């Protein structure tokens, strides 16, 4: 019996290597247990992916508490308890985990059918947030819809929606990939409409991430290379024009280029200079957990956009390196799951998973670059870690769909149905 099972295992693994290759899949476990002498089942989901996501959220919860513990000393937050942001972040993580558990039960085929409607729902909310009385204004930006337990940010749903829609769109346009107008124009119009709504909030950072997701999926879907680079050139020109025509954005660029200039150090470059001071104080192993000075009302938004700076100050280069490696692994894993799905002829699932990889990796890259002064200051959170209820919620939902894709990939490789 063991000999039969061993032969079946070798055959299964040879088929797996032929269809996907070792680089395109999670290694298949042996069907024969050498210790017990009886068959064991293939693992149903990617447990390492789950643990990495949970570890990032748990670490983020710890650092959000550390970064926000002094907030009640600020007159604006005088009525808040020291644990106010910790409690709200725990609630957001709770909602995110429940939403993720529900989402992972939904077949990928259902998301393929719902993709256009999720994108339409995101557009409706992006319009709604601009209506006085519905959208909430914070620091001059109208980006949130109050829901009582949390403020929902429609741009986070738009990131999820564009990943679904772009993957569905490319699957439908596979035969027209070489025709510019058929393959690109409808997506370009959709992206332009989203961009106009986001710039009206304003939220240029979210638009950059959404554009990166859409363009990345178009490129991975096989759009003609010359067409792709033409679109990238148009987008870069549009971003340059927006910066040139906006005094506020232009001043931000000048402040980024010379943050220590007296003209900017106490103005547009204030956050950047204090973020750099935080990293400088952290050195190799940091000042110790809770030992940050910059979070004591020197560094604005330390628990949201500049959480990495607090990590750098308290845990040093070592702590920042761990975060970077975790996001690198997460991004690479999403791409491998996507490549595996495409090898199994599941184009929509594969492009979506790789789009989520672009989302997580791209947004983390921008946030880290802003914190380190490598990119101009932009209001983007660190995925899975920074304070923000709707961001955590949609991150969990998006990654739960990726986990479902991996689960269905494994079922197909076992000879079952997705």
TrEMBL record:
Enzyme class: transferase
A Pfam family this chain is assigned to: FTSW_RODA_SPOVE
Pathway info: Cell wall biogenesis; peptidoglycan biosynthesis
Alphabetical GO biological process terms: cell wall organization; FtsZ-dependent cytokinesis; peptidoglycan biosynthetic process; regulation of cell shape
Annotated membrane topology: Multi-pass membrane protein
EC number: 2.4.99.28
Compartments reported by the entry: Cell inner membrane; Cell membrane
Catalytic activity: [GlcNAc-(1->4)-Mur2Ac(oyl-L-Ala-gamma-D-Glu-L-Lys-D-Ala-D-Ala)](n)-di-trans,octa-cis-undecaprenyl diphosphate + beta-D-GlcNAc-(1->4)-Mur2Ac(oyl-L-Ala-gamma-D-Glu-L-Lys-D-Ala-D-Ala)-di-trans,octa-cis-undecaprenyl diphosphate = [GlcNAc-(1->4)-Mur2Ac(oyl-L-Ala-gamma-D-Glu-L-Lys-D-Ala-D-Ala)](n+1)-di-trans,octa-cis-undecaprenyl diphosphate + di-trans,octa-cis-undecaprenyl diphosphate + H(+)
GO molecular function annotation: lipid-linked peptidoglycan transporter activity; peptidoglycan glycosyltransferase activity
Transmembrane annotation, as ranges: 49-70, 90-108, 114-134, 180-198, 204-221, 228-246, 306-331, 343-366, 386-407
Cited InterPro entries: FtsW (IPR013437), FtsW/RodA (IPR001182)
Domain of life per record: Bacteria
Keywords: Cell cycle, Cell division, Cell inner membrane, Cell membrane, Cell shape, Cell wall biogenesis/degradation, Glycosyltransferase, Membrane, Peptidoglycan synthesis, Transferase, Transmembrane, Transmembrane helix
Coiled-coil segments: none
Main location, first listed in the record: membrane
GO cellular component: cell division site; plasma membrane
Cell wall biogenesis/degradation is among the record's keywords: yes
UniProt function note: Peptidoglycan polymerase that is essential for cell division.
The family this protein is said to belong to: Belongs to the SEDS family. FtsW subfamily.
Alphabetized NCBIfam families for the sequence: ftsW
Protein name per its UniProtKB record: Probable peptidoglycan glycosyltransferase FtsW
Organism: Roseateles saccharophilus (Pseudomonas saccharophila)
């Amino acid at each position: 019996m063991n000999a039969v099972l061993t032969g079946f295992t070798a055959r299964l693994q040879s088929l797996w290597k032929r269809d996907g290759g070792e680089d395109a899949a999670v290694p298949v476990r042996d069907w024969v247990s050498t210790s017990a002498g009886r068959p064991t089942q293939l693992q149903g989901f990617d447990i390492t992916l789950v643990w990495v996501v949970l570890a990032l959220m748990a670490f983020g919860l710890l650092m959000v508490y550390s970064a926000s513990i002094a907030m009640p000393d600020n007159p604006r937050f005088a009525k808040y308890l020291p644990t106010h942001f910790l409690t709200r972040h725990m609630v957001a993580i709770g909602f995110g985990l429940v939403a993720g558990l529900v989402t992972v039960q939904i077949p990928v085929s259902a998301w393929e059918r719902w993709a256009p409607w999720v994108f339409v729902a995101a557009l409706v909310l992006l319009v709604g947030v601009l209506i006085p009385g519905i959208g909430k204004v914070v620091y001059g930006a109208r980006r949130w819809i109050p829901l009582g337990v949390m403020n929902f940010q429609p741009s986070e749903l738009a990131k999820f929606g564009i990943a679904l829609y772009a993957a569905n769109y490319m699957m439908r346009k596979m035969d027209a990939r070489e025709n510019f107008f058929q393959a690109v124009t409808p997506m370009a119009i959709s992206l332009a409409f989203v961009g106009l709504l986001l710039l009206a909030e304003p939220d240029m950072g979210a638009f950059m991430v959404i554009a990166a997701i859409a363009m990345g999926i178009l490129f991975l879907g096989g759009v003609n290379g010359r067409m792709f680079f033409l679109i990238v050139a148009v987008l870069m020109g549009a971003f340059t024009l927006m910066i040139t025509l906006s005094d506020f954005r232009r001043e931000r660029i000048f402040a980024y280029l010379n943050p220590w200039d007296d003209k900017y150090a106490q103005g547009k470059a204030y956050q950047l200079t204090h973020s750099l001071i935080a990293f400088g104080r952290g050195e190799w192993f940091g000042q110790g957990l809770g030992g940050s000075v910059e979070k004591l009302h020197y560094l604005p938004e330390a628990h949201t956009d500049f959480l990495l700076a607090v990590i750098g100050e308290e845990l040093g280069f070592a702590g920042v390196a761990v975060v970077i490696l975790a996001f690198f692994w997460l991004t690479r894993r999403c791409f491998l799951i996507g490549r595996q799905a495409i090898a199994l002829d599941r184009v929509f699932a594969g492009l979506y998973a790789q789009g989520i990889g672009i989302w997580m990796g791209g947004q983390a890259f921008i946030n880290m670059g802003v914190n380190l002064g490598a990119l101009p200051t932009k209001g983007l959170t660190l995925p899975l870690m920074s304070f923000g209820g709707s961001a955590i919620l949609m991150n969990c939902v998006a990654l739960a769909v990726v986990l479902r894709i991996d689960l269905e990939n494994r079922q197909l490789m076992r000879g079952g149905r997705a």
